[in-house]
Amino acid sequence: MLINTFLLVLGITIGCHCQEQTPLQKVVKSGDKFNGNLYKELINAQKGNLVYSGLSANLVLSLLTSGAKGDTKNELLLGLNLVQNDEERNNGYKQLSSSLNVNSKDLKVLSANKIYPAKGFPIEESFKNTAVNDYQSEVENLDYQNKEQAAGTINKWVEQKTNNKIQNLINPDKLKPETKLVLANTLYFSGKWARPFDFTRKGMFHVTESQSKEVNFLQGTFEAKYRHCGFYQAKFLELDFQGGNISMTFVLPDNRNGLQKMEDDFEGVSEVHAMKSGNVEISVPKFKQETEIDFVPVFKKMGIQKIFTNGADLSGVSSKQNLKVDAIPQKTFIDVTETGVEAAAATGVHGVPTSLIKPDFIFNAESPFLYYIRERNSGAVLFAGRYVN
Predict the structure, then answer these.
(1) Which of 188, 190, 246, 138 is CA-nearest to residue 6?
(2) Is the pTM of this model over 0.70?
């Protein structure tokens, strides 16, 4: 199960014969660039294990950019690597959002947006229309004078949208009497592996060359997609989920200390790569983790400054009030188990015992690795992270 919540709190080539990209393709490509830049900043600020959703951040900040003007807007477009044309960008995210809503027994991909203006706070009609029509956002007015009640309302919505996995996203103390608008996004995923793992074993995970830790490993030998990349000196393993076009890719350096080379180019590592199919002997840790991120200092390092100052120009959101961004928290949760990225009853699989299958490839994740979950129709990376300890 993978869940993410993202919140914004605001207060008072010439001659190319290539096929033209669609708005959807453009926002996915720009999102890949942003995701790579964001990853590098996050690992500098966040030590140890990490899971986050750059897509969730892009969705809500793209909406905010539609209401920004002048230097404020230029900073957002550049720092977030967004498609510059508002109509094209919003149309692309509208198409992407429609593919992020799958709700079946075995697969759930659910994205939700909501804007919470203060009671009596005037929002520009054009911004509201963009939020509702392009980002499928709901609208609910709140009384920020009662910060406990306002925070409770937002947190309850987040809990409902994330199957109660993300709780207390927003601290009431982050809300102020002068808070005029909150933008929230949730991205929820749960899925069962197309082929569940055979069993779980105890083993040693090598945190460093000199430090090891006993963990539970998911073990199996079955058909999967794989490749070895000489450039990154790493093994790639792609596992499918049932009932949809979602996959999870694990990227394991050949060298136990080789993670940094890949982290320096996360955009390239997370690109769609050609894979082989064959019997793979797989061993990956069973893990559960949650990451909480304050994006304000992260985005400031990425060159986004003005939205956090009194000089912010968000007059496209409201021409009646001066707005600035006060806080950008995100919580993300992942739970990788035998049956999928969700705790569920195992189903029996009839097949050849693993000991009798000669593998074409061995993927033994006993040292730090990266991972990401992709929606293959669009190519968008929904979640990404690293497991190092």
Answers:
(1) 188
(2) yes
